[in-house]
Amino acid sequence: MTGSLPRADGFAAAATGRSTRRRIVRSVVNLVQERLGASSMAEQVLRTIGPVVLLGPPGAGKGTQSKGITEHYHIPQVSTGDLLREHVKQQTPLGVQVQAVIARGELVPDNLVCDIVAWRLRQPDADRGFVLDGFPRTQKQAAWLDSFLKFEFFDSGKWASWLPIVIRIEVDYNKLLLRITGRRTCPICGSIYNVHSKPPLVDEICDKDGAKLVIREDDRDEVIRERLDTYEHQTKPVAEYYMALGRLVTVDGDQSPEAVSASILKEIDSHACDRVQRNQAKGT
Ligand code: AMP
After folding, report:
1. Residue 136 preceded by cis peptide, ω within 30
2. How far is CA 122 from CA 19, 118, 130, 136, in A?
3. Does residue 234 belong to any structural domain of this protein?
4. Residue 278 catalytic?
5. What is d(CA 172, CA 219) in angstroms, rounded to the nearest whole number?
6. 120 CA to centre of ligand 1 in angstroms
7. Is residue 267 domain-resident?
């Protein structure tokens, strides 16, 4: 996502992306079969992906990577930023309450965000698993998530295991700034572009539906530093919380999006294999 690719290369990159994806799918199947020795087991792994948490500063590519995970495993992306922006757009009572906080780049109070997440994770499409993008962002949210998952999914017998895989995407600070300032979003379909590294075919217009692309209110220069500061002070301790529990996996986010995606899928598969193997050992 960094550097500036000429547009003609965009097509080559897309083709490379497709063949990389095919290679990834093959390697995933191989890994699963190697580790578990049977295709029915591979199916079991794919059925129980469970919770995936993506951590990283604004601009690390969490949104892009979440969409990739969603397509790959057919589990929903749960982005607290998107859910909150939707409330603001609809001007719900919650949206009106949090509008100014979001515009300043500060964090919405924990109890409000946790309520939205609880509501979203109870929807039936989250039964096989989900990708949390932008949550948890404070230690309190992380502790709340652990008890929520245990209570709702494990104690209720829905899942044999509830521990999320937590993946941190690490990116160089200056590259982050470039990514955020170049980010453009389609207000209709949510596609994400970047004027430096992934421009649309026609300037400022969405390739998919022709809508005029927008800069997110909180991607404006004056708000970006506040968001990065907030991340540094409040969200970094979340990574430390998971690290202390031995549950943090770090992926190098300075690689190409395809390479980041390959690393992430490999980690998720490996985690899912471990879980199936542990459950087999326990006889569940
Ligand atoms: P994002 O799109 O994830 O960067 O989120 C945009 C904004 O929504 C953030 O700058 C916060 O104001 C708010 N927000 C999103 N997720 C959370 C969260 N987990 N806790 C508190 N505020 C959040």
Report:
1. yes
2. 36, 6, 11, 17
3. yes
4. no
5. 18
6. 15
7. yes
Which domain range does residue 198 map to? 7-282
pLDDT tens-digit profile of 144-191? 999 999 888 777 777 666 788 999 999 988 888 888 888 899 999 988
Q: Any idea what the CATH number is for the domain that residue 189 is in?
A: 3.40.50.300
Beta bridge partners of 185: 192, 214
Residue nearest to atom 5 of ligand 1 (CA): 81
Catalytic residue among 67, 137, 168, 275: 137
Per residue, the 3-state secondary structure of 112-149, as one string, reads HHHHHHHHHHCCHHHCCEEEEECCCCCHHHHHHHHHHH
CA of 108 to the centre of ligand 1 (A): 7
Question: Ligand 1: does its nearest atom lie under 6 Å from the Cβ of 218?
Answer: yes
Residue 2 lies in a domain: no
Distance 134 CA to ligand 1 centre (A): 6
- The model's pTM: 0.75
- For residue range 109-153, what is the model confidence (pLDDT) as tens digits? 999 999 999 999 999 999 888 999 999 999 999 999 999 998 887
Residue 1 domain flag: no
Told to judge if 21 belongs to the known catalytic residues of this protein, a careful annotator would answer: no
- Tell me if residue 62 is catalytic: yes
The number of domains in the chain is 1
